[in-house]
Design goal:
The protein is α/β, with parallel strands linked by helices and 430 residues long. It has 2 domains: 183 residues, Urease, subunit C, domain 1 (Roll); 235 residues, TIM Barrel. The chain contains 19 helices and 22 strands. A hairpin with a 2-residue loop joins β21 and β22. The radius of gyration is 21 Å and the shape is globular. The protein starts with 6 loop residues before the first helix and ends with a strand. The N terminus is likely disordered. The structure holds zinc ion. Zinc ion (ZN) binds next to loops. Zinc ion binds next to loops.
Length: 430
Amino acid sequence: MGEPMSQTLLEARSPAMQRSVTPPMWRLTGARVATGAATAITTDLAVINGRLHHAPPANSHRRGAAQMGSPIPVQTVDLRDYIILPGLVNAHDHLEFGLFPRLGHGPYQNFLEWAADIYYPNRSPVKEQLSIPKSVRLWWGAVRNLLCGVTTVCHHNPQIPCSFRARLPVRVVTRYTWAHSLALGKNVAETFRSTLVDTPFIIHAAEGADEQSRAEIFWLDQVGALDPKTVIVHGVGMDRAGHELLERRGSALVWCPTSNQFLLGRTLDLDSVRQHRRIALASDSALTAAGDLLDEIRFARGHLRATAEEAYAMVTNRAADVLRLMRGEGTLTEGAVADLIAIADDGGRPCDSLSALNLERLELVMVGGEIKLLSPSLARRWSNEVSANLERLEIDGVDRLIAAPVRNLFNVAQKHLGKEIHLAGKRVRV
Ligand SMILES: [Zn+2]
């Protein structure tokens, strides 16, 4: 990483977080549970050792406890009136820019024009933003994802050190190789060649509307860097032949519509999106995105007329496929990792609940069986010990309890940015 991680925040855990004990076992009862974009069933879910089990037999909690060698009893939580969805998978972000405002005055011909226009590290607001320790900025990027129901995020930058990453409240993808782009990446072809089978090689490409952007996909193919491992982020400048080539090679595409619209004045049209089997919807960074992953869903649905089923798949199972996640992320299947969200149930299809989701409606986020976000009203259904592990944050007037050292993060941000703090455009208070 370009700058040292702040030791203070590397070590930072609230006193409550330091009390964190053996992963708890839960029995979640009475909720409807999504089995697909359009289907849900009412069933109990057991969370044992961070994994999901459907409708377990009555004595399963005892077996689970025995497996763990732990005396901790299963805690039953009544989730009647809620629908449980898989935790969302955000296939593209740059976590350290979560507190940045949107920068730029597009449309530009390509991202290089944009970068030249906005990158003045000695001027406000970039100067103040970059003066915040990187570890604090990464935390805020993780919080931005958590607040909108993301449980797995792909960070497009050097790997975050393991000991730090483990403390973040969302999973950060670790198995990937990457290059920034053809223009700014180093050793692109070599990096691709060193990528193991079943590991994504992720690169920004065709992020522009000019000839160079159109040609990038063909250059990647010529150097042999286009195969099922390849994940192209953006692809806006690709022509029909480019889209066909990408699909023929079995490569994947990540679509960041509001970022594209802001930078380039355009994004992929729905016909192009529908050409691809392997495609994910993602937020990109706060530097260019409208907000968070839920804003991308709204934009894809409202402006681009993607169906609710398409949007649902592109932030759950299809996004997990693009990133080659192996533990059932993006699903609620038997044995999958227990990454889930809960929303007040209106009786509709899971994909319609997701399309209507906003920060206020999202009331629970669980990652690997651990509670990372609760609404105050839902917190009353859990033991006090759960709430004691969380800190309060207000985002756009919505109160949430989250697993982050909120007060510490807020104080550091205020020291550098002043009184008002915004996270991806939304006002934050503690
Ligand atoms: Zn990006």
